Amino acid sequence: MKNVMLLAAAVTLLGTVLPALADEAQVKRAFEARHQGVKVEKVTKTQFGGLYEILVGDEIVYTDENADYLFIGRVIDARTRIDLTEQRVEKLTTVPLKWSDLPLDQAVKTVRGDGSRVMAVFSDPHCPACRQLDTALQEVTNATIYTFLYPVIRPELRKHSDAIWCSKDPSQAYFNLSLKAKVPEAAASCATPIDKNLALGRKLRVNSTPTIYFKDGRRVKGARNPEQLSAILDETSR
User: Fold this and answer.
1) Which regions in the chain score pLDDT beneath 70?
2) Measured between alpha carbons, how far is residue 235 from residues 5, 64, 118, 217, 238 in Å?
């Protein structure tokens, strides 16, 4: 958001009109020239409206071929209602990950039924969207859920995540806090993996919670309903 605010503040256009640009590299140079201090990660010509997609950090904005105009917002496919901007951000910013590379010993483990289907979640127990996901997970059976405590929404309450880890039953303590706002009674006096989780999340560019990883490496941001979760678990746990 900081990058987009910087761009929005820099929308004042230069007086000269640039000639038509032939490729993404020229658009990148023109865009950065107009918006001093903004580093463009990638430029891609879109299939709609002659716009160019500009990736800045973990966000996408759009410009024309001369970088004369700046468009901030989301492109939605009117036929399918698919958020094309969200799809592209996810594709461009996701760091490839093998399930075997996840340090599962740093996560709270919850087993439902036979535990045959697996998923991992970066979650802040004080995150409203995480609460929606955790509510849905109550209806998901035959799954093992690895919850990486990731206190970024309410970092001032990081001690609650520490206390979850130090509880006798971390899984129960996590869901009690997420779903019932019941703060763990355990003193956060044991060694916890929270700092490692925060470092891992930064490495994987996890910039929102919940962020879910599945066994085939697929990453999903945000809450899903029980049916959607079960469908993805079936696909990815084969």
Assistant:
1) 1-22, 188
2) 39, 39, 11, 12, 6
